[in-house]
Write a structure and sequence with these properties.
Length: about 300
């Protein structure tokens, strides 16, 4: 089961990169900020270190993504700098409307008890359009699968914090009656909420069947290509109090193994929790509308 790692907890890196040989296989996860193709991939490195570093990176996700690229790098003080090469692409299997990123990976080595980790950031450019930056993210790798699983367990409550929406001074809401990505925005329910800061939880309904959705607030992306499992994905977001109505859309990126795309949505408003059954398909996108009304003493 995959854990969403939008926020990787910062660690104090041990300054041992010069003396530590990082040769071998590393197992991990790579994230991408909202707006990217997906927010979490499995990720591995196979490295050889002598005077310089070289090897392969391997990113994959379920049965839909498999990318293997050769890379090289060096040690810069306490930072390990690795760069993939467009000329060393070994495998490039992605959905037809995706493009692989050629990544620059900057990580630091640390040791925690018996576990060794590489942790840091990545950025990059599109494989087909080198002038176009990819949406960056974070990297966590461990020498062992057990070490990785321990990290994921310790950080299992990581959440997505949606970026604040940029609105005009008049805070004009979008046209909620217009089609959305060639689908009809189908109203499921309307909820009155009393807090601007809300929490959304999304999990699979009944049987886990590899449903994937993207979540939008007022037609702006909050989270893209979320794999829906029995473990809830959590999104923190804030409403603009100048708007009378807010729209949450759950767009079906696929229909899972058993159509349609189904999930359970929880809107947590302070001490109140609203539980909603969501059904989306390629013709209709589920829409939930929120009306913000602060309590009288606020």
């Amino acid at each position: 089961m995959k854990t969403l790692l939008y926020l990787l907890i910062s660690c104090s890196f041990v300054s041992t990169a010069y003396s530590q040989d990082i040769s071998g296989k590393w197992y991990g996860k790579i994230t991408q900020l909202p707006g990217g193709y997906s927010q979490l991939y499995d990720f591995e490195l196979e490295l050889t270190q002598k005077k310089s570093i070289w090897g392969d990176s391997y990113a994959y996700m379920k049965d839909s993504v498999e990318i293997r690229i050769g890379l090289s790098g060096y040690i810069d003080n306490d930072t390990i700098r690795l760069s993939e090469s467009r000329d060393w692409i070994r495998v490039d299997r992605v959905p037809w409307n995706w493009v692989a990123c050629i990544k620059n990976i900057n990580v630091a080595y640390r040791k925690d008890s018996n576990n060794e980790y590489l942790e840091g950031n990545w950025n990059g450019v599109s494989k087909d359009r080198p002038y176009e930056d990819c949406i960056p993210g974070r990297v966590i790798l461990s020498r062992t699968v057990d070490g990785l699983n321990q990290f994921l367990y310790e950080h299992r409550d990581s959440v997505i914090t949606a970026p604040a929406a940029v609105v005009s001074a008049e805070a004009v809401a979008p046209d909620f009656n217009s089609p959305f990505l060639n689908t009809e925005a189908k109203k499921v329910t309307e909820i009155q909420v009393h807090n601007k800061a809300l929490k959304l939880q999304l999990l699979d309904y009944l049987r886990q069947d590899n449903d994937t959705v993207s979540v939008y607030l007022n037609r702006e992306i909050m989270a893209k290509n979320l794999w829906i499992s029995k473990r809830a994905t959590v999104i923190n977001f804030t409403l603009d109090p100048r708007l009378e109505t807010h729209e949450i859309l759950l767009f079906a990126e696929n229909l899972g193994e058993i159509p349609p795309n189904t999930s359970e949505l929880l809107i947590i408003d302070g001490n109140d929790t609203h539980r909603i059954m969501i059904v989306s398909d390629k013709q209709k996108t589920a829409a939930v509308y929120l009306r913000y009304k602060p309590r009288k003493n606020e």
